[in-house]
Design goal:
By secondary structure, the chain is mostly helical. It has 14 helices and no strands. It has helices at residues 7-39, 45-67, 77-101, 104-111, 114-125, 132-152, 160-183, 189-203, 208-217, 220-245, 250-256, 259-271, 278-294, 301-304. Helix 1 packs across helix 12 (259-271), helix 4 (104-111) runs antiparallel to helix 6 (132-152) and helix 8 crosses helix 10 (220-245). The longest helix has 33 residues, at 7-39. It is globular, with a radius of gyration of 20 Å. It starts with 6 loop residues before the first helix and ends in a 33-residue tail after the last helix.
């Protein structure tokens, strides 16, 4: 006998897929820091960003054609263009440049204000709330990021320009995420990511000449790392990010990225044989604890009741652009009531 899925079980299944997508994004973005270390020695900031985006755009374009998803709705394009310019374009260039001016610890501390800005912008521009558990969790995670950054910081390795560039990267990242969120109501995660990546690639085309000249002199390992950055931390990770973002609030998704510093410490230990200090390990654990707290929901009677059935079964579809955020809906503003 076939059992018909209940609305509550369908909702749980969607949440699990969104959580798996967010975890995939965090793991791949953490691996990017290891690859950037290699590629950044041979490529300048603009050339590295363009090479990464070209590899990502090619990968996403092929997948889009195979899946025959076509163009997103017209209403999605303002968010696609804004996120493409700010996140795929500006963020990648200035972050690469900033990390050449400051040590890794300082960069990590400054860039990690991004999730806080996402939560604040999401509350102001998207009508998302600022639930207490999210704020507490982000505070704990940011403290952990500061601990990791201080433990990794060198002496005299920072500059005013480098800090300013990392700050600009954090602002571009936050603004790009908040711009992308509304676009996901009008297109799939693959569509929004593909065309956002193409917009970022077009914005970085002025670095084409530099990229061509540096490819000729760069070691094969650096070029392979650049291609890896394009295929996995860009094409795959940005798509899984968009998939998860379509199903939760921007603030909660931003908070999950606080797990990245902890994973970077672990990967550097396993892959680069860089043994972390106890201070660094403690900071990483704080980051993870804060992420766990930020994902908690207050226990209320309303949460215990099953979700009402959705007319027409629309939310049972797998099309990412057709689903409204499921997680954190109770924290949204009165405009949803």
């Amino acid at each position: 006998m076939t059992t018909t899925p209940t609305p509550a079980s369908t909702h749980t299944g969607r949440n699990r897929r969104a959580t798996a997508a967010a975890c995939t994004t965090v793991a791949l973005w953490a691996s990017a820091f290891v690859s950037i270390r290699s590629a950044g020695d041979a490529y300048s900031p603009g050339a590295l960003a363009l090479g990464r985006l070209l590899a990502g755009s090619l990968t996403l374009g092929v997948i889009l054609l195979v899946r025959r998803e076509g163009l997103p709705a017209r209403a999605a394009w303002p968010g696609i263009v804004a996120s493409g310019l700010l996140w795929f374009g500006l963020y990648m260039v200035v972050l690469n440049w900033g990390e050449q001016q400051v040590d890794a610890g300082t960069a990590a501390m400054v860039v990690n204000i991004g999730p806080i800005l996402i939560a604040l912008l999401g509350a102001r521009l998207l009508g998302e709330g600022l639930p207490r558990m999210l704020l507490v969790g982000m505070g704990v995670s940011f403290a952990g990021a500061v601990v990791v950054g201080l433990s990794m910081s060198g002496h005299g390795g920072s500059s005013v320009l480098g800090v300013a560039l990392c700050l600009l990267a954090a602002v571009a990242y936050a603004a790009g995420v908040v711009a992308q969120k509304p676009a996901l109501r009008h297109g799939s995660a693959l569509q929004i990511t593909t065309f956002g990546c193409l917009v970022g690639t077009a914005a970085c085309l002025p670095f084409s000449g530099v990229l061509v000249s540096e490819v000729a002199d760069a070691p094969v390992s650096a070029t392979l790392n650049m291609v890896y950055l394009g295929i996995f931390p860009t094409a795959l990770a940005f798509t899984t990010w968009a998939y998860a973002l379509a199903r939760t609030t921007a603030g909660r998704m931003g908070a999950t990225t606080y797990a990245v510093p902890a994973l970077v410490v672990l990967m550097s230990w396993l892959l680069l044989d860089e043994v972390p200090a106890l201070f660094t390990v403690g900071g990483g654990l704080l980051c993870l604890a804060g992420v766990a707290v930020s994902r908690m929901h207050p226990q209320t009677g309303r949460r215990n009741s099953p979700a009402p059935p959705v007319e027409g079964g629309r939310h049972d579809q797998e099309h990412p652009g057709s689903e409204r955020p499921q997680e954190g809906e109770e924290e949204t503003s009165g405009r949803r009531r």
